[in-house]
Amino acid sequence: MSLAEFGLCLRGLAAAAVVAGALTWPVIALPQDGVGGHQSQPDAVQGRVDAAIPPLAPILAQFDAHRFFEDRDALTVALHDLQEGLDDAIRPTPYEADILLGLAGLHLSQRMLPEARSFLDAVPDAAQLIERGDTHLTAQQLGRRAALIAAVKGFDAAPELTLDGWPDAPLFEALHLIARGDYDAARPYLADALVILEGYPPALTDSTVLHLFRGAVESGTWDIARNLALRLEGQDDSAQSAGYRYLLGRAASAGGDIVTAFDNYAVAAEGQDIWAQRARLALLDLGRSTGTLTTTDARQLLQQTRTLWTGGELGLATLKRLAALELSERDKIAALVVLADISRLHPETPEAEAASVQIETLIDAIYKRGFANEMPLTEFFEAHRAVMREFRFNPDFNTYAEKFAEHLVEYGASGLAATEFASIRARMDRRADEISRDPQSEAEEITKMLRARDQLRLKHAEALLDGGQLTEAARLLERLNAAPDSDLRDRYNLVQAKLFTAIQRPADVLRTQMAEPTDDYLRLRAEAAFALGEWSRARDSYEALLRLVGSDMQMRDRINLLLSAHRSGDQARAREVIRSFPELEEHLAALAEGLTADLPDVLPLRDDAARQRIQSADIALQQLQAAGGGEGIP
To answer: Dihedrals φ, ψ of 160, to 5°?
Structure first.
């Protein structure tokens, strides 16, 4: 009776009785009617569990490859009709389990692995029976289930099997070892694997022979490889398949026949499956090893190949080859892009870990060269942009980016520096918001982030000032937090003083204050007081600047100090300042000396003469100031 006829007979009859009589697999007689079930002692259960696991071929032999749909419909109808008459006391019943195992075997015979697994999951395994302490399934049923589940796992490249004594185990042991690339370990299993495979249906054998052929070729088991090659040659569509051609190329390459290897790889590479990708990589390796493929051509082919296959081990292998090529050509930027793909597309792999180390080394080398002026600024700028595209969200990138922006400031590229600071600030603002909203964030971490953000805002404001973007700088300074950090307050007041100087508000410059003033800040205050005509205040600020920088005081500042001392009426200090100008030319020194000469008491109109004297002295000082022009003193 066929399965289709069996399904028809089932309708209208008592389901349990029909299934028990129709299926050829043995079913244990139960003391009850198949609905309730029977409990026994654990040792009896263990005896059933220890039953031998049968070979797979007889289990699958009853299914005709051309009657899949008819058999599936018959079994499905039988299962449905049976389940309508059962309660939930013990499920599945032996008859129900037989049908489920039949459906699993049917789908496995067509290599429909997920479908087969779903039916097997509905049948309890030996461990579950032991835990429940019942025997409502027979030893034969448990054996069939174990064989089917082992085959599903084996064909699905699951970890190696540990089913000692199972006759089919050598086949799946070989497939597992081949799948993980351990070809030498697979060699002893190949002969037995071929014998076992002979009894399987075509849907399983056709797809498996190619993998065994690979194991034979890669392990150098040439007698088995020849037999498998002849078998593949006779199969429909296999002679021209990418896998068959690729493995023929591997065999030819192992035998030193480079031309035949190349021809077979070239045919295989035209496909779209995993074997075609293996062939493309083999062609590249062959071309590089024989010197027939230039670096430029290899790079172009690898770039094309990576777009054809991006996932899995072959995608990773493609990227590894491309990264090695770029590193050998010392193209750090191109190598970084490929290494970034390795880290992103293949995380949790040793290659990704190694790529991360290489990335850090390459980025550090790029910035060290740039900061040391060992590359043109335009080249450094392009390198920075390339790094930013790939790694702008890496935790350490902002440190490099901030130093790069400061480097641009030193070069006078204030506009570009301001743009860089703005990009860093955008990323930092997002991070600061995330930390502030996270209830797990510690107060110290939040404070540290806010301080770093304020420091960056000040640098950005300074770059805007240097670039003449005064409105934007003023707007940014208004947003700064009034942090209790004295260093930040000092830096803030310095930038504010620069802004007030740029917009010609000297009075506002004098309202700022630094706890530890820098020479830049003292100069700004002195110049502001000088512009307002507050000579004593200007003199004091220039004196403070002189104490801070000493002999490095610029000529312009010394001249303004002299003029401030003279205009404030401190002639003694003015003479001291003059004597500290030994490098002045003689006639300028004489003019400067005239500023502090005593006025004769006997002259009439003493006040007018004094005013005239001062006016002449101012003209002389202007000449002196023009002559000094801001040059430093040697």
So the answer is: -55, 150
C-alpha span between 39 and 48 (Å, rounded)? 13
pLDDT value of residue 380: 93
Which tokens is 444 given?
């110290």
pLDDT of 503-530, one tens digit each? 999 999 999 999 999 999 999 999 999 9
Single out the residue of 96, 113, 102 nearest to residue 73, CA to CA.
102
User: Quick one: average pLDDT of 314-320?
Assistant: 91
* CA 338 to chain CA mean position, Å: 11
Please tell me the distance from the alpha carbon of residue 61 to that of residue 39, in angstroms, as a whole number: 33
- C-alpha to C-alpha distance for 263 and 282, rounded to whole angstroms: 11
Residue 440 burial (CB count, 10 A): 6
Rounded CA gap, 303 and 323, in Å? 11
Closest CA to 185 of 175, 196, 198: 175
Cα dist from 314 to 279, 286, 481, whole Å: 11, 17, 53
Convert the pLDDT of each residue in 577-595 to its tens digit. Answer: 877 766 645 545 555 555 5
Burial of 333 (0-12, 13-18, 19+ CB in 10 A): middle
Tokens 């070069």 sit at which residue?
Answer: 411
Task: State how far the Cα of 341 lies from the Cα of 291, in Å rounded to an integer.
Answer: 28
Distance CA 567, CA 430 (A): 54
Place of tokens 């004593």: 536
Instruction: Quote the strand ranges of 46-184, DSSP E.
Output: none
List the beta bridge partners of residue 39: 134
Q: Rounded CA gap, 97 and 91, in Å?
A: 9
CA dihedral 579, 583, 585, 590 (to 10 degrees): 0
| DSSP assignments along 183-249, one per residue | HHHHGGGHHHHHHHHTTS-HHHHHHHHHHHHHHHHHHT-HHHHHHHHHHHHHSTTTTT-HHHHHHHH
